[in-house]
Each structure stands twice: as structure tokens, then as C-alpha cells.
UniProtKB/TrEMBL annotation:
It comes from Thrips palmi. Substrate binds at residues 153, 191, 255. This is hydroxyisourate hydrolase. SUPFAM superfamilies: Transthyretin (synonym: prealbumin) (SSF49472). Residues 145-257 form the Transthyretin/hydroxyisourate hydrolase domain. The keyword Hydrolase applies. It is an enzyme of class 3 (hydrolase). It catalyses: 5-hydroxyisourate + H2O = 5-hydroxy-2-oxo-4-ureido-2,5-dihydro-1H-imidazole-5-carboxylate + H(+). The keyword Transmembrane helix does not apply. GO terms for molecular function: hydroxyisourate hydrolase activity.
Amino acid sequence: MEEINEIANDVMEEANADESESQHSTDDYDELEKSSCQGKYHKQSYRKAWESLPDFKGWLQGVVGQKNRAFCSYCQVTLFAHRLSLLKHTCTIKHQRASQKALLKITDDDDLGLNTVSSVGLEVEEVMEGQIDASPSKSMNMAHSSAFPLSTHVLDTSKGQPVAQLPVSLYRLIDSRWTLINESVTNQDGRCSSLIQKQEFVAGRYKLHFDTDRYFELERKETLYPFVEIAFDVHAPLDHYHIPLLLSAFGYSTYRGS
């Protein structure tokens, strides 16, 4: 009887050992499969050609010694070298703000140059009368002259370059209806300042309409915004209002410049 009990115990122990071994094998396989999937997901190689693409030009760089990482010079952060992930990064608020700061210095430098021209006494009326030699693009760049109290400057943050030949329309809210005031296009520097004369610029509510769809069609890029409208209130019509637009395919921002 004792021998039968010992044999039964041995059989039970062997069965438990086999079940435990089988469970460990299954767990090890699941862990290996999970690790393999994670490796495939994160294993991406940076491509130098990305730096010349419109979405990444001006801010994307590779990381030395790390083939699966990329570096954003605007945000000063490293990112996974996954193209879709990098495109999503361009739409983040952090990247938009960082690109705005990077391009703001260019805008400020240009504004200082415009102020210098005005201080020398080169008035827009003199340009129109032919008293000085100036091209149309230079005359339109005199955004701070007394004749043009409103100006805008459009910059493509994904390229770090101005947006030229972009249609811009100015509207004013009159009797609860948006009334078209004038239409124009940005020059080669991305600026437009001839939308309204000083004597027509009165206190009220205005909006700038930018035809961004046409621009991105020419760039062969998909965009979320077919147009951009910026509404603003004018409380001091004797002051100059500079309303820039920082633009990308999936985001935009604005501020009041000087």
C-alpha cells in the first residue's frame, strides 16, 4: 500500500513539473514576442534626404551615433526618426512657439530696416511721384510709412521662409456684415502693406483673409486649413497695426508685431 502511495505522489510531482515548465515556456514566448514587436516599432533609421523636404527644412537634423533618433533645432529636443511622428511634432504647440521665436528675430530685423528707411525721410509719396528709384517690392515693404497703417507678414514655419504671392483680403465689420475693403498679394518677402490708406483706417473690427489653399496646392502639400482668417479690433487708428501670420500645413499662429 505504501508503495502505491509513493508511486502516486511521484506521478503528481512529475505532472506539476511539466505544467510549470509549460507555463514558463509560454510566458517566455509572450515576452519574446512583445520585445520583438517593440523593437520593430521603434527601429527606424534617419534619412538625410528628409532635411530637404518642405516640412522638415530648416529645423530637422540627424543625431550622431543614433540612427533611430532625430533632432529639432527649434525645440532643442531629440525625437524618434519616424516620418509620421516628425510630422506630428510640427503640429505641436511647443514646436509652433519655438519656430515663432526663431523667425521672430528675422521679422524684427526687417522691421528695423524699414524704420531706418523711414527715418532717412524716404516717404511713400516720394516713391509714387518718381522722386527716387525704387522697385514695387521695396515700396510695398515700407510697412511703417504714414500712408499704410496696416501691414502683415506671412512666414512658412515648416520651411523657415516667407510666403510670396499669397492672396490677402481685408474686411471691416459694418452693420453686422463683413464688407470687403481691399485685396492684394504678398511680395517676395512675404509682406503686404497696401490694403488700406491712413485716411480710411478708422476704429472698428477688421479681419484679414489669407488664401492658404492656393499656396499649399502649388507646394503640392495637403493642408487642414483651406484659408486663414484673423479678426482684430482697432482701438487706436492713428497707431500702426502689424498682424503677422506664422503658417504651416497643420497649424498657424499670429501676434501683434511692432
